[in-house]
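Rotation project, supervised by the postdoc (A.L.). Task for the rotation student: set up a whole-complex structure prediction and record inputs and outputs verbatim in this book. Inputs entered:
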Amino acid sequence: MAATSAGRVLTLCRQFQNAFRISTTLSAQQSTVTLTKGRSYPHRLPSTLLSSSWSCNLDLAVQCRPLHTTISRRGLEEFFDIPENWGEATVKSGAPWTAKQLRTKSNEDLHKLWYVLLKEKNMLLTIEQESKRQGQQMPSPERLKKIDRSIRRLDTVVKERENALRLLQTGQERARPGDWRKDVFGRIYWYRFREHALPWYMNRRYKRKRFYTPAFVAPHLRLRLEKYLRAKTRKQKKESENQAVLKEKFPQMQAKSQ
Amino acid sequence: MASRLIYPLYQMGNPQLRIFRPPFFLTLVRPGKEQPPDVVQFRIPMVMTKFDVRNYVEKIYNVPVGAVRTRIQYAQPLVIGTNKKRNHLNQKVKRPDYKVAYVQLAQQQTFEFPDIFPKKDVKSAEGSVEEMQEKFMEDEEQRQKPDPRRGGVTEWFGL
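Outputs recorded:
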C-alpha cells in the first residue's frame, strides 16, 4: 500500500486526490474502483469487487494489472490522528467536498465516502474532547466545520437522487406520506403521518389530538385574519410612502422592481 | 439513512432493521476513573443502544467487542447544586446530557489512551515575527535573573 506518512490531506481534499482508476471493459458500475494515494481507507469491498472482475476477465483480451488492496487493520488507532501530527499547532487539511463534486460520484463511492467522513469526524471529536480535558488548544479546529459541511452536502446529494428515483418510479413527491389538516387554532398545516400499531379509532392518544377547529374559535379566526390584513396593508403603505419620499429626493430613480 | 431518522415500526416477523450511512458519531474519551486495561470509554449519542455500539465498533472499526455497558450522564453545571444559570438573553441554560459506553474488548486485547499533546521543541522560522518575539522574551528573562556572581544569595541586603 502507498506510504501512510503522507498527510490526511489526501483523503479529504479533492485537489490532491491522485485517483488512479482500474477499469475493465466489463461494465462501468462494477469495475471503476477509485483508490486514493497516501492516506486511504481501503475497505473490503474494493478487493472483493476486483477479485470478481479479475476472475472473469482472463478470457478477455484486456490488460489486467494484478492489484492487492490491504484491509486497514488499525482498529482503535483510527480514533486518533497519525502520530506525526500529535503535538502540532496546526494540521494541514484540504477543502471540503462540494455538492457539485459529490454529484459526479457513484452511489458506491458516496457510501464509502460517508464512512470515511464518519471516521474522520469521530477522530476530530476525540481530539477536541481530549484537548478540552488537557487544557490544550485543538490543532486546526476548522476541520470539524469542513467535515460537517461535507457530510451535509453528501446527505443532500443522496436525498436528491432518492427523490428523483421515487418521482420517476412512483410519481410520489414526498418520501413520507402526509396530509393538509386543521389544528385546534384553525391553522392549516401539513401533518406528516406516523406508523402506528393500531388503527386510528382505537388509538386513544391520537383521538385526544383534535384535527378540527371547535366552534368557539370562530371569532378568534376572524380577528386573526383582520390583524393579518391590517399588518399587510400597513407594510404596503409604508413601502409606497418610502418610495414616494425617495422619488421626491431623487427624481431620476427607477421604480423598485418586485 | 439521513440526519433525521424515523425508525419503522417493528412487529414480530419483520426483517432486521438496517441503517445505511449511520449519522451517529462516537467520541473516545479518557476515563475519569481508573478502568481495566481492556475497557475503552466512549461518549455516544443518546439514541444509541448497547447493540448499536457493538455493531458500530465491530463493523466500522474491525475491533472485536466483548461486552458493552452504557449509562446516561447528567451534565452538571459548573457550580454543582444550582440550576440558576442564564445566558445573556436571560434564558435558562443547561448543558446537554450525554450517554457513556464502556466497551470491553474481546480476544484479550488492551487499550491505553495515548498522550496526544506531547511537548515538542518548536524552532520558529528564521527572521519571522515569532523568532524575534522569542528572542526578546529570552533577553527579558536574562535581565530579570539575579547576578550569578552572588551565588544564589538574595539582593535584599546590602553588599
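Student's summary: The mean pLDDT of chain B is 91.
Supervisor addendum: The CA atoms of residues 10 and 16 of chain B lie 9 Å apart.
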